[in-house]
Every structure is written in structure tokens, then in C-alpha cells.
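Hi support team,

I submitted a single chain yesterday and got back a structure, but I'm not sure I'm reading the C-alpha cell output correctly. Could someone confirm the output below corresponds to the sequence I sent? I've pasted both exactly as they appear in my results page.

Thanks,
R.
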Amino acid sequence: MLSVKSTLNNSLLSTKKANTKNLCYSKTMTVKHQSSVAPTIRCKAVLYTIGKWTILRLPESASEKLPSRGQVMVRGTINGHHLEQVLEPDGRWGHWFKVSKALQKAVGVGVGDTVTLEIAPSRDWPEPRIPADFLNALHDAPSAVQTLWSDITPMARWEWLRWVNATSSTETRKRRVEVSISKMRSGERRPCCFNLAACTDPDLAKSGRLIGSENPIA
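Hi R., thanks for writing in. Yes, this is the structure output for that exact sequence:
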């Protein structure tokens, strides 16, 4: 098994080569399939845009069936095509996610189209993409921090990075990276005092809510 430092070095090299696209911090970690089958949630939703992003927002009746008002990992299908997705909270007890161009092309849909989702919550989270600044900070951190980062769950790693990414301010982001390392040095395994039900995407949120989410979806 690779050492934590070796894993960090490999991840940092991959970050520079791939421009932080689709990175995993720990190459030694495997994602297990969910052992128990959760009830399938079936719904329809329309793709729409906020700024340059294409968005799918779940109907309220579908979000209500999810186990958390925060991020939720789901697996299932979209128009019959395989889907593994971390759903984001909209700040109003609902959920949404960005629909990439690659997924739109694979499914054969675009803005304004209605899609059918069949999804179920999963306890098995994928590894998050780690931005270069956070990865560099991990690389320079004490071995105890690196070990803690390796030991916590993928979901906890998502939460740390979500808090760091939830700002458009360069200075605030830099401070959050430093605070994250400091808190992990003290043994904290998750960010504290953080509203997990808020919409934290700086490009799509206003006052902790997804832009336009005040309009209910049936």
C-alpha cells in the first residue's frame, strides 16, 4: 500500500497534469457498492440554466424522500442512463445538481427537456475532486493531518472541501484552507459551525439559497 506522503505526491502530480480535473486524493481507496438496497425515488424534472450552468432541480416531493437536507449521494438512472451523483442542497430543503455537457450528450437531452430520474440514496461516496491549493496544503501539513485526512470518510472529505469552495473571495478561500489544516491538526474530523443544508456554490447561491429556488417545483 502506498504511504500517505507517496499518495499525496502522486495526487499532486496528477493535479498539475489534469488541471485538477476528476482527482482522487487516495489512490488506495476503493468504493464499495451499497450492501442494502434503498427505496427507489422516481420523478421527472426539467433542465434549465442559471448563468452558464445547466441545472436539474428535484421536485419537492422527490427531495422529501431523501435522508438528508444536505448533500446526498445517489445512484440510479437518468432517462435510463447510469447516474452516480452527489446532490446539492438548495437552501430550501430541496436538492439539485449541475448537468454536465458530457452527461447531456450521453443522455441526448438539453436545456428545456424533461428527464426521468430513478435514484436511490447510497452510503458509498466517491472521492471528491481536490483543488490544487488544498492538495498543496495537505502535502505540506504534518503527517498527523495527512493520516487523519486518509482515515476520515469520503463524505467528510466532501464536507471539508465544500466549506473551502463556498466562497468567491481569494483571501477567504486561502484562510479557509489554512483553518481546515489547523482544525485537522487539532483532531477535528469535520468542519464545525457549517450549515450543511445551505446552497454553497458561490456561482449559483444567494444568501445560502439556490438562485430561483423560491419557485416551487411540483
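A quick pointer for reading it: Residues 125-213 form one domain. Let us know if anything else looks off.

Best,
Support desk
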